[in-house]
Design a protein that fits this description.
Layout: E1 17-18, H1 24-28, E2 35-44, E3 51-61, E4 69-70, H2 75-79, H3 81-101, H4 106-114
Antiparallel strand pairs: 1-4, 2-3
């Protein structure tokens, strides 16, 4: 097995992790089914020891960001700490998305959930 998890660095099995949680599809609504991403950075040279600058790349994808998956996360991280983090953050994120539709500020949403008063009020 040659795969190592992007977060833990441990050998394991790659998961097909959605970049954005699947439940967000219902909350956010539809996004365009075509997107363009740009990238640049560094990569190893042919000798495998030195890094070289890689020019800018452009990629057109025929899916929305809500359907994008990655295979860089191991199943242990995906089903463990990442799942717990998502479960904990989900109520806050749903409130933030709903507040955006109502044009509320993030401070008022956070304070409503935490039962406090926004600064300056």
């Amino acid at each position: 097995m040659g795969f190592r998890g992007a977060f833990c660095g441990e050998p394991g099995w790659a998961s097909r992790e959605h970049v954005l949680a699947q439940w967000m599809r219902d909350v956010v609504g539809p996004l365009p089914m075509e997107r363009t991403t740009y990238g640049s950075g560094f990569d190893t040279m042919d000798d495998g020891r030195a890094y070289a600058s890689v020019g800018q790349t452009m990629k057109v994808s025929r899916n929305s960001l809500l359907h994008q998956v990655t295979r860089t996360v191991c199943t242990a991280c995906n089903n463990g700490w990442m799942s717990r983090l998502e479960t904990s953050a989900k109520p806050f994120l749903k409130d933030l998305f709903a507040a955006r539709r109502r044009n509320e500020t993030r401070d008022s949403v956070g304070c409503r959930r935490l039962r406090c008063s926004p600064v300056g009020r």
